[in-house]
Design goal:
Largest sheet: 4 strands, antiparallel
CATH superfamily of the largest domain: Lrp/AsnC effector binding domain/regulation of amino acid metabolism (RAM) domain
Strand content: 15-25%
Mean pLDDT: 95
Number of domains: 2
Structural class: alpha+beta
CATH architecture of the largest domain: 2-Layer Sandwich
Distance between the termini: 12 Å
Length: 151
Amino acid sequence: MLDDTDRRILRQLQADPDVPNAVLAERAGVTTGTLWRRLERLREAGVYRGVRARIDWAALGYAVEVSLRFTLDKTARGAFDDFLAAAREVPEVTEIQTFLGKVDVRLSVIARDMRHYQDIYRSRILTLPHIADIEALMHVATIKSADTVPL
């Protein structure tokens, strides 16, 4: 599906997503017209979904990050859908993942400090529907966080 030119363009975008198109075209070894057509084709194929802002939550005063793993009461009709809909409404939830296995859902939650986290946990997390079990993992450090794929 991807040829060497597409890979060069995507590698350059991963390395520097804010690069102007003229510079990107030069680095990828193509004309700006070719770059534009290739990016459009990659967008249409769903490979390239655009550039987005990455906010450093810690720089905004969010010092606590917790990963919460949930086992849901799957005997309740619509448990997954109800839980996910409610979890989406919690502003401090930055990520929601679903799994097959013992753990059904994982939420990443940020808070300014432990008191704020305790308030979120009691008032927003514990009120989520169909919870059978919760396991909390306190984030200590990020060792690797790759936003790139090998091309």
